[in-house]
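Q: What changes when iron/sulfur cluster is included in the input?
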Amino acid sequence: MDLQRLKRRLQELKQPSYRLQQAARSYYQDLANGWEDLTTWSKDLRAACQDSAWSPLTQIAALESRDPESVKFAFKTQDGLTIESVVMRHDDGRNTVCVSSQVGCAMGCAFCATGTLGIKRNLTAEEIVDQIVQTARYLKTKDGRVTNVVFMGMGEPFNNTDEVFKAIDLLTSPEAFGLGARHISVSTCGIVPGIERLAKEFPQINLAISLHAPSQDVREKIMPVAKAYPFDRLMRAIRSYMDKTHRKVMFEYVMLEGVNDSLEQAEELADLFNEHRHLAHVNLIKYHETGKFKASAEAHIKAFQNVLKRRGISVTRRVSFGEEIDAACGQLAGKI
Ligand code: SF4
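A: The predicted holo structure follows.
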């Protein structure tokens, strides 16, 4: 729902300001499906405002994984493009929505299915938030609610920073969705100005870095962004974020056989953190074979993990969700 547009319309119609709050409450909190559910308004007023879309996205598919621990949604934008979001249902009752911030992605990471799509356009804040509102409607039918949001779907959030930050404002505002800032994470492939702005403007939001390599030479082979924002500059920005916010940073690391998974590279990775070790958390991800790489063997991932543990680095394996519905990391490619 585009609140600014609706506000203008209500002003034209000389309506009191509480009308906007009624509409916002109905959309964000009651999770109503459409204008017809806004029964505190007269039929005429609803009809006069209907040129503002209630939901800017239309859900075209919802694919549950077999167990069913994750659901992948496909949405159509008003200009006919397809985006995807995933909800991951955890055993402890948390429900994490992974949202897209762009249609496609320009960054071209070699291990990522979304990266093969190229970029079509940025999503608006309303389109970003509508993914979460529509997922919340789905969860409501299962007696669940959205507890966490991660910007890890299609796109690089810091290539669309203004709209992503507007979406975060709407998600955290008590008058809108009302989610706690600490329940939101933004994941970037390493866009340094975005990291700097996050530290300044949203120090409560969690930062995740798609690192995937312990050094510049390996990183630039698999992630073209490393040429624009070289490794040293990126690490400086991350350390400065840690110093300013005192918040833990999650480092995503996809395990690619023979590329970034040697035990020497595990030592190199550990060396990066030094005095910031207590604020670093490494998440090792099993590669879902979508392209030219091979996934590291299970035993090898364990050995890599053990090196990090021995060096005092907090490290986990990402619980893999929804592999069979192409909803795992790096698999959102608009295929449903
Ligand atoms: S990993 Fe992220 S930044 Fe890289 S191509 Fe995929 S969606 Fe884009």
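Observations recorded in class: Residues 125-140 form the longest helix (16 residues).
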